[in-house]
Design a protein that fits this description.
The longest helix is centred in the N-terminal third of the chain and has 23 residues. Strand 5, helix 7 and strand 6 form a beta-alpha-beta unit. The chain is an alpha/beta fold. Helix 2 packs across helix 10 and helix 6 crosses helix 7. The protein folds into two domains: about 90 residues, Rossmann fold; about 130 residues, Rossmann fold. It is globular. About 40% of the residues are buried. The protein has a six-stranded parallel β-sheet with strand order 1-11-8-7-5-6. The chain has a three-stranded parallel β-sheet with strand order 3-2-4, with helices on both faces. The protein has a two-stranded antiparallel sheet with strand order 9-10. The structure holds NADP nicotinamide-adenine-dinucleotide phosphate (NAP). NADP nicotinamide-adenine-dinucleotide phosphate (NAP) binds next to helix 10. The site of NADP nicotinamide-adenine-dinucleotide phosphate has 26 residues, from helix 10.
């Protein structure tokens, strides 16, 4: 079997096209442009690329965007003061503090300071709490991207065994909440999974992953998931982005797994573009909430 590839790049473009129309309608109705402001501390090269991609995507759909660059010597108090200014600015609808922050800063303290109604990454404890109660204000961008691609290809998780490798606050844990929830805004196929979350202390990882109908890798270890760890016919979603000298690779060994899986997301061109599309979606949603 050779897996069908799940094309996140094309889907992200389609979602952005429909978002452009929604942004136009918002502008006509409210006479305002939804705006995302990103804050970047220091010179981390990968973060610079991510922020640039997000800004370009904003432009493509007609959202306003702004980047505040703070040098690496910025103190946590200065960053917090910047966040407070953005919280108080009615023209800013979404605030994104690009991670990782310098290690001397507490990311939790900074992210907790963002107004939860402008928290388009959905990292604020209030938004995490709402998500865990099944009444999300914003869906976290990468998990939402995973839902969108499964939905687009008509792949159901309902009643299926889903194994997620990775339990981070950004990907694995919120994804487990969404897929195991009682319902989903994308319909009955994108919830009611029986979800197992694995991590670095999971004994015999391969035995667990091999039972998955849907296997999701969000680990940050290049090509860790190989064909022997995948049940023949499983759907495999690769969230990982690892920079090797040869280029970007996922957490899944693409060449071997594509021979056993039924469906597989490539890296690049899988979940990455959808994460950006969902950030734009959240920015528009934040603006709609502000003008409701
Ligand atoms: P993270 O915070 O470092 O979490 C990694 C998770 O993987 C942890 O739960 C860790 O377990 C687990 N893990 C590490 N090594 C393992 C092993 N050998 N076996 C089993 N589990 C293992 O990373 P993250 O932020 O979730 O990101 C994960 C990957 O997704 C990264 O490659 C990142 O670049 C990528 N990512 C992509 C997008 C996108 O848009 N496509 C967005 C966000 C992240 P412990 O909890 O025990 O440490």
């Amino acid at each position: 079997m050779t897996a069908q590839l799940l094309d996140g790049k094309t889907l992200a473009r389609e979602l952005q096209d429909s978002m452009r129309e929604k942004v136009d309608r918002f502008r006509q109705r409210h006479g305002a442009v939804p705006k995302l402001t990103a804050v970047l501390v220091g010179e981390d090269p990968a973060s610079q690329v991510y922020v640039r991609n997000k800004q370009q995507a904003c432009e493509r759909v007609g959202l306003a965007s702004d980047l505040i660059r703070l040098d690496a010597a910025t103190t946590e108090d200065q960053l917090l003061a910047c966040v407070m200014r953005l919280n108080a600015d009615p023209a800013v609808h979404g605030i994104l503090v690009q991670l990782p922050l310098p290690s001397r800063m507490s990311a939790n303290r900074v992210l907790d300071a963002i107004d939860p109604r402008k928290d388009v990454d959905a990292f604020h404890p209030e938004n995490v709490g709402l998500l865990s109660q099944g009444r999300p204000r914003f869906l976290p961008c990468t998990p939402h991207g995973v839902l969108q691609i499964l939905h687009r290809y008509g792949l159901s998780v309902a009643g299926k065994r889903v194994v997620i490798v990775g339990r981070s606050d950004i990907v694995g844990r919120p994804l487990s909440l969404l897929l195991g929830a009682k319902d989903s805004h994308l319909g009955p196929d994108l919830c009611n999974a029986t979800v197992t979350v694995c991590h670095s202390r999971t004994p015999d990882l391969a035995a667990v992953t091999a039972e998955a109908d849907v296997l999701i890798a969000a680990i940050g270890r290049a090509k860790l998931i190989d064909a022997r760890m995948v049940r023949p016919g499983a759907v495999v979603v690769d969230v990982g982005i690892n920079r090797l000298e040869s280029g970007l690779v996922g957490d899944v060994d693409f060449e071997s797994v594509r021979e056993v899986a039924s469906h597989l997301t490539p890296v690049p061109g899988g979940i990455g573009p959808l994460t950006v599309a969902m950030l734009l979606h959240n920015t528009l949603h934040a603006a709609e909430l502000a003008h409701a």
